[in-house]
Design a protein that fits this description.
A hairpin with a 5-residue loop joins strand 4 and strand 5. Helix 2 packs across helix 4 and helix 5 crosses helix 6. The protein is of the alpha+beta class. The chain contains 9 helices and 5 strands; from the N terminus they run αββαβββααααααα. It has one domain. The chain has a 3-stranded mixed β-sheet. Strands 1-2 form a two-stranded antiparallel ribbon.
């Protein structure tokens, strides 16, 4: 990975007035976590969130740092110089930090990936006043987003009760059908199936 000049807006805060400072990636990290928990339920506190780092991969991920309960969010190189990209990637990964699942144990499902996409777009638009284009309509991320967005657009907290102290992957078909009888069974099956990017 090449070291690039990082946007100072990501790491350097400036004093605005008494008890008010500009946002940084670290302060947005905390705010995103608060908003995500208010929408989708509290995070599993048996995991310690260590912060974030940058890597040469083509998409953001969470990684387990030596101790299987220590999590670091990895953002892409693009996020070092593009503030909007950094916040977008961070918001996606914050959702995965609510109830982490090591990928060698279970794959994530389309419900969780749809929620990550929805949350990233929501947060950028409503908390930062910026937007990001949705992925191409053939992208599995876009398809997961399209399946979950109608629920969350109407009620961002609608999954909170279903996820109570659960991982998204542990939510059962019957629970979704009971909570959302208006959703076609095929859509429920799609959302609860394993996600492949």
């Amino acid at each position: 990975m090449s070291i690039t000049h990082m946007s100072s807006e990501l790491m350097v805060t400036e004093h605005i007035k008494e008890n008010e400072y500009t946002w940084t990636l670290a302060s947005r990290f905390g705010d995103m976590l608060d908003v995500a928990e208010s929408f989708f339920g509290v995070r599993d506190k048996s995991y310690t969130l260590l912060g974030f780092e940058f890597w040469s991969g083509d998409h953001p991920i969470i990684r387990y740092s030596g101790n299987p309960t220590h999590i670091i969010i990895r953002l892409t190189e693009r996020a070092q110089t593009d503030v909007r990209e950094a916040y977008y990637e961070l918001a996606q990964e914050i959702v995965h930090c609510l109830a982490p699942v090591p990928t060698d144990e279970l794959p994530t499902n389309r419900l969780e990936e749809g929620v990550t996409m929805w949350f990233a777009h929501y947060y950028l638009k409503n908390k930062i006043g910026r937007s990001m284009p949705l992925p191409d309509e053939n992208s599995p991320y876009r398809q997961a987003y399209d399946a979950v967005a109608p629920l969350l657009d109407n009620n961002p907290t609608c999954l909170k009760e279903l996820r109570k102290q659960k991982k998204f992957i542990e939510i059962k078909r019957e629970e979704v059908l009971s909570a959302f009888p208006q959703i076609p069974e095929g859509t429920v099956d799609y959302l609860l199936s394993g996600f492949k990017s």
